[in-house]
From TrEMBL:
Ligand binding (heme): 152
Gene Ontology CC entries for this record: mitochondrial inner membrane
Cofactor field: heme
GO biological process assignments: C21-steroid hormone biosynthetic process; cellular response to peptide hormone stimulus; cholesterol metabolic process; cortisol metabolic process; glucocorticoid biosynthetic process
Membrane protein topology class: Peripheral membrane protein
Entry annotated with the keyword Ubl conjugation: no
Gene3D superfamilies: Cytochrome P450 (1.10.630.10)
Domain of life: Eukaryota
Family under the similarity heading: Belongs to the cytochrome P450 family.
Annotated compartments: Mitochondrion inner membrane
Name recorded for this polypeptide: Cytochrome P450 family 27 subfamily A member 1
Length: 207
């Protein structure tokens, strides 16, 4: 029961901020946006709502969200305490109750793991057999939800919310950045947020 308030509170700004960043970059990368639109309507025609099973056929949709979370992890830095037993990492011994601090923002922009780390490149998350793929060099290079038994409890809910809303938007609208918005930077509050309002225009696509 103690996790319920945490799930409810943590699931608001986190998903909305991630979707804001995703739409911001899609508006600046029209070729990616068009490819995503074609993928979505190829699986779920306009006028129909996507279902959970449909997302298994939308690899670019998932890649866009993964790339967004790589660039803008919801929580830029967090920590965990190892409580079960001492562990050895890289020849160093860490006793029980050691606190580890991970800066997701820095790790997920490591150029040795993510080539061209500052650029929005969703195709890096697709299989290397597909064109224009930079590739991801380490499976734990980006872990915005954490990993293991203490990973984010709301991960699946958050992923489904974002997939559903982004798919619906890509079905029906072309997203354009408002000219007055300009360049947007991230700033760390409790979560990582834009430094100003992100103005977007949603242009209805023909049916």
């Amino acid at each position: 029961m103690g996790s319920l308030p945490e799930l409810l509170m943590a699931g608001v700004d986190t998903t909305s901020n991630t979707l804001t960043w995703a739409l911001y970059h899609l508006s600046k990368s029209p070729h990616v946006q068009e490819a995503l639109h074609e993928e979505v309507v190829g699986v779920v025609p306009a006028g129909q709502a996507p279902r959970h099973k449909d997302f298994a056929h939308m690899p670019l949709l998932k890649a866009v969200l993964k790339e967004t979370l790589r660039l803008y992890p919801v929580v830029p830095i967090n920590s965990r305490v190892i409580v079960e037993k001492e562990i050895e990492v890289g020849g160093f011994l860490f006793p029980r109750n050691t606190q580890f601090v991970l800066c997701h923002y820095v790790v997920s922009r490591d150029p040795s793991i993510f080539p061209e780390p500052e650029s929005f490149q969703p195709h890096r998350w697709l299989k290397k057999s597909q064109p224009d793929t930079l590739g991801v060099q380490h499976p734990f290079g980006s872990v915005p939800f954490g990993y293991g038994v203490r990973a984010c409890l709301g991960r699946r809910i958050a992923e489904l919310e974002m997939q559903l809303l982004l798919a619906r938007l890509m079905q029906q609208y072309k997203v354009v950045l408002a000219p007055e918005t300009g360049e947007v930077r991230s700033v760390a509050r409790i979560v990582l947020v834009p430094n100003k309002n992100v103005g977007l225009r949603f242009l209805q696509r023909p049916c």
